Amino acid sequence: MSTCLVEFSFNDLCELLKVVHQTDVAELTLKSDEFELNIRKGGLAGGAGATVAEMAMPATHPQATAFMADGSNRPAPAPTPPPAVVDPKWVDITAPMVGTFYRSPAPGEPAFVNVGDRVSAGQTVCIVEAMKLMNDIEAEVAGEIVEILVENGESIEYGQPLMRVNPS
């Protein structure tokens, strides 16, 4: 019997999810004494092509750690809180392409918008860098920014909600 130690960074997990999403693999399970990772796609509540990943660690595991890309390990992150209630009248500003999300026009400059700011239709609210091109993302409606859902410099996917606007 052979033993295989599997270490995943967050980036490794993201890459694994991308690969599964782009292939015909419908379900993948990785299991060890320390954790179990289940990835399933298609036919879910999120719609065709949606991918769900679940990871479980025994609560009694004394050294549950998250292994980082730099080789270090840190305590496993706390479980994420349940999603906040989203008002149905809010409008999502979504990513029109895959790329990198930036809140400001250049490093060290102020963000285009912050939570609580009022925006007008057509106003630039962020930038998405794709293939070394900077693309201005504009608000489609006037209103107040109520949520910013992505961190500055984070990789984003097509159709991913970036911000939420309470239209006025």
- What's the end-to-end separation, in Å? 64 Å
| Cross-sheet strand order for the largest sheet | 6-13-11-8
Number of helices: 1
CATH-derived architecture of the largest domain: Beta Barrel
Uncertain segments = 43-51, 59-73
Would you give an account of this structure?
With 168 residues, this protein is mainly β. The chain folds into two domains: 10-75, no CATH class; 91-167, OB fold (Dihydrolipoamide Acetyltransferase, E2P). 8% of the residues lie in helices and 36% in strands. The chain contains one helix and 13 strands, in the order H-E-E-E-E-E-E-E-E-E-E-E-E-E. It has one helix spanning 10-22, and strands at 27-31, 36-41, 51-56, 65-67, 73-75, 91-94, 99-102, 118-119, 124-130, 133-138, 143-148, 155-156, 161-167. The strands form four sheets. A four-stranded antiparallel sheet has the order 6-13-11-8, with no helix packed on it. A hairpin with a 4-residue loop joins strand 1 (27-31) and strand 2 (36-41). The longest helix has 13 residues, at 10-22.
